[in-house]
Design a protein that fits this description.
The protein is about 45% helix and about 25% strand. It has helices at about 25-40, 50-65, 145-150, 155-170, 190-205, 220-260, 270-285; strands at about 5, 10-15, 20-25, 70-75, 75-85, 85-90, 95-100, 105-110, 115, 120-125, 130-140, 210-220. The protein is an alpha+beta fold and about 300 residues long. The strands form four sheets. Strands 9, 10, 11 and 12 form a four-stranded antiparallel beta sheet that branches. Strands 3-7-4 form a three-stranded antiparallel beta sheet.
Length: about 300
């Protein structure tokens, strides 16, 4: 079985496969038998001639050979086996294991990693500086790529997290009061999904799988935070006043139509204009209005 292939750039890419190792418990029993052989034959040296010497030496050689091949694997841990630098597969079987003494092994954790990135300052789609931080849950799924295709897979992942955050942060605006487009603040789930997809493409070459990616911090940069807050407040005030005016116009129109329909009062253009003005002041004013009783004629 081959342990590598060439990618589109002509570089060697490793692929994980099962190493030819075995359980260490059988070899432990054999080690115990060799120790018994040494214990039995060693006292007989000089009594029965050359045979005890041979048996003792054989027991010592077997014991040393077996002892050099033991290693332990914890749950969610793998061992990449190498022969003089050549990859010979990965052992993921837990417990006491044994391999040929001339084979070296490099242990690697395949547990889930939870990383919260540092705050990264990014210019959003509109050029406003914002601070973004994310939490990424990842794990190694291909030990061969993680060990042999990148220099340091953990550092590689950390750098790619920052790079992906910068790309996604520049792709969307921070906020959109009209809700016409995807924003960092208003569409966190979609942004997180795109961030996870972007990051997975970047760390695939290191044999890493991204399980989850969520934004943990999102804010305007301190130098524009106050200015952006005032802008948001102004936009909110304008939107509120627009809604208020639209409602007031509808109420005035309804009141005039009802007065005319029920023949409550005859209104000429001048009286209609005065009533519209008074109603708009009452409905749109920020302070409570004070009624003025007109004791005389309107004219």
């Amino acid at each position: 079985m081959t342990d590598s292939k060439l990618n589109v750039n002509g570089l060697t890419v490793s692929e994980e496969y099962q190493a030819r190792t075995q359980s260490g418990y059988g070899m432990l029993a054999l080690l115990f038998l060799s120790c018994i052989l040494i214990v039995i034959s060693a006292p007989q040296i000089g009594v029965y001639g050359l045979l005890p010497v041979i048996l003792t030496a054989l027991g010592i050689v077997i014991a040393l050979f077996i002892s050099c091949g033991f290693y332990l694997l914890n749950p969610n841990q793998g061992a990449a086996i190498q022969l003089f630098g050549a990859y010979q597969g990965t052992d993921r079987n837990t417990g006491l294991r044994w391999r040929m003494p001339w084979l070296t092994r490099t242990k690697i954790s395949v547990r889930v990693h939870n990383v919260t990135s540092e705050k990264v300052k990014v210019n959003d789609l509109r050029g406003n500086p914002v601070e973004i931080a994310t939490n990424v849950v990842w794990r190694v799924t291909d030990t061969s790529k993680a060990l042999f295709d990148v220099e340091d897979y953990q550092e590689f992942v950390d750098i790619q997290i920052e790079s992906a955050v910068r790309v996604i942060g520049a792709r969307y605006p921070y906020d959109d009061i009209e809700h016409d487009e995807v924003t960092l603040r208003g569409d966190a789930d979609e942004v997180s999904e795109q961030l996870e997809k972007q990051l997975q493409e970047r760390v695939m070459s290191a044999g890493v799988t991204i399980d989850e990616c969520r934004l943990t911090h999102l804010a305007y940069a301190p130098e524009i935070a106050q200015a952006m807050l005032r802008r948001q407040q102004a936009q909110a005030v304008v939107a509120a006043r627009q809604t208020l005016v639209e409602g007031a116009v509808g109420m005035v129109e309804t009141a005039l139509d009802m007065l005319s329909a029920k023949d409550v009062v005859e209104l000429d253009d001048e009286r209609r204009a005065a009533m519209v003005s008074n109603l708009m002041v009452v409905l749109c004013g920020e302070r409570d209005t004070q009624p003025v009783v007109n004791a005389g004629s309107l004219y």
